[in-house]
Design goal:
mainly beta; 397 residues; 4% helix
Length: 397
Amino acid sequence: MRPLLTLAVLSFALPAFAAEPKFKKHDINPKSAFEAAGALDADGDGTLDVISGTTAYRGPDFTKTFRIRDVTKQGTYYNSFSEIPLDVNGDGKPDLLTCSYFGKNVGWVENPGSLEKPWTYHEIDLPGNSEAAVAVDLTGDGKPEFLPNSVNVVVFYILEKAGPEPKWKKVDLGTAAAGHGVGTGDINGDGKLDLITPKGWFEATGDTSDPKGWTWHGEFDLGATGIQILGRDIDGDGLTDLVYGMGHSRGLLWVRQEKNSGGERSWSKPMTIDDTLTSVHTQLWADLDGDGKKDELVTGKRVYAHEIETGDVEASQVAYYTYDRSKKAWTKHPIYQGEPATNAPKEASQRDAQKDFPRGTAGTGLEMTAVDLDGDGDVDLVCPGKSGLYWFENLSK
């Protein structure tokens, strides 16, 4: 526990905008149908750019565009399911980690240091259908690993050596625990990050760069969740709980970790945070109100995750949620509320998010980024999806 004096100093140091933030939606490209986007200073000019699929949008106004690479398309899906900045070749310029579902691959896209030159794709592996990914430190060395949601296998990749020919190490935890969804959190409170799947969790028990350093606990079955299952102590009882969305049905949910009469770990039944959300595929914790704590849960609807599924034509929304421990209740804070696709064709093959939903409809796609995009000192949101590419400007500053 920190000394009281330290807490007092921190309280005076809190930003003046520590209040409920308001957001303004900006259309980067309402015609974009890519479901992942990364924010990075791609050309080294000191401002963040946005890259989504084939296209780079130069900051700070994102109006000038550059085609940097080709991306294949399968039906209504583009094979670019993540755009995660990481300097892979060690040249000081951020590259991109990407994965694809239909291409069944994970790879990195090399940044030549310019938006006016082609970016080159380099394959890392072919683990199988990979729907979204995150960068997270699973080995405890302070460096992020590449964790895709390969729905047929639980696997992550360690960048052992950066360089023109980077060295990657694959950590394969097998197929039995794999499913629609993956995530992380310190489940047992030992200070080590554990790996979560819809079917249970892998405990970090040894050298986590080796599959033998992980111990499996099949303690729950969450179903087809969103890609990030988030482990965090929500209610303040010292036990890590789980927050997740249903990827192809209805609901943003959480389950409490509990102890039974024998002191053994158990899990509550799923509890609803928001039953108006459907197709939840990505969520994250962010410091939106500037109080120095990443305690706002941000998520929303993935527009046409499948063209035919629960809530498919319902209005899209983006929101953040806060939990009041004294009231034991969640509060929803809408960021964006769209309109339903009232005239959508009945056949899935005829549905098109660009045509069925009103122009300018925002969603959360497969990847959201919480970042100070405009450099004004507060955290904004970048939200790509089949119905367009948008950023939500935080108006706190």
